Amino acid sequence: MIGEIKKWRESRLIPTEYCDFLMNLYAEGDAFSHDQQTGSKAKSSWKTSANGGVLGKVLLVITGLLLFLIFALNFTLFPEPMQIAVLLLGTVFPFVMAYRKRGKSSLAQTVWLFVAVVMVALIGYYYLSSSGLLGDRGKLLGTMAVVFLVWLLAGAAFRSRLVSGIGLLGLLLLYANFLEVAADIGTSSYGVQHFYFMIPAFLALFFAVVLGRYRVYVAPVFLAAGLLALFGPDLRMLVFGLNMDLFMQILVFLKLAVLITLFIVYHQGLKKWVGQVSQ
User: Fold this and answer.
1) Which of 130, 219, 231, 269 could make a disulfide contact with 212, Cβ separation 3.0–4.6 Å?
2) Are 88 and 126 in contact, with CB atoms under 8 Å apart?
């Protein structure tokens, strides 16, 4: 365009003053566009390097922490109280770091939170191992229940639906295992099995409603868990490779049809509800 303006000026098709004005205008626009692109690229590069730097620091600290824990727990010269202290420190420190990263870097907070909850599981394993209770099924399930409950609460406190979801799913699996061992659910009919799984389903849906009313971030996790529990007998048959007769297949189809219909009818309200609890 600047070349065309120069031709106009030389041929005197347009007054010289207008040509000078247009040349200055287009020249400044090109310079501004170039500076803007350069600044945008520099800003994007800085953000990328900053995120990479944060992730690198987190991974470095985590690697060092895990190496130290492996060294401490396998070094027989260390007394048992020191091992316990190292485990507690290795658990509290990631929780503190996750709290400090809250609202600043979601990736760093999630990584630290996962390290913290894994350390909680290691503490449970250390307790069972040092007490010689790994072979005690009741103690093992009880310890796992406490660990999964801590995961659930930690996810709620740090607004992580993934961590809370894993914790709640773990509790559901423990409940299913309890039904297999204590209630001998395998001897019950398909219809009776639904009553066993309605207990956690209704509890989860109840908590979803209550927590949603108070806009707790993990309320949708309880909703998903409650719906999943309603299909407990069907999932059990799938896991154990059991055959379904025609009646069971029809019942599964009806449950899916009702669930899909409710989702289609209330999906706008559900979307609004999830948005409210996510604020």
Assistant:
1) 219
2) no
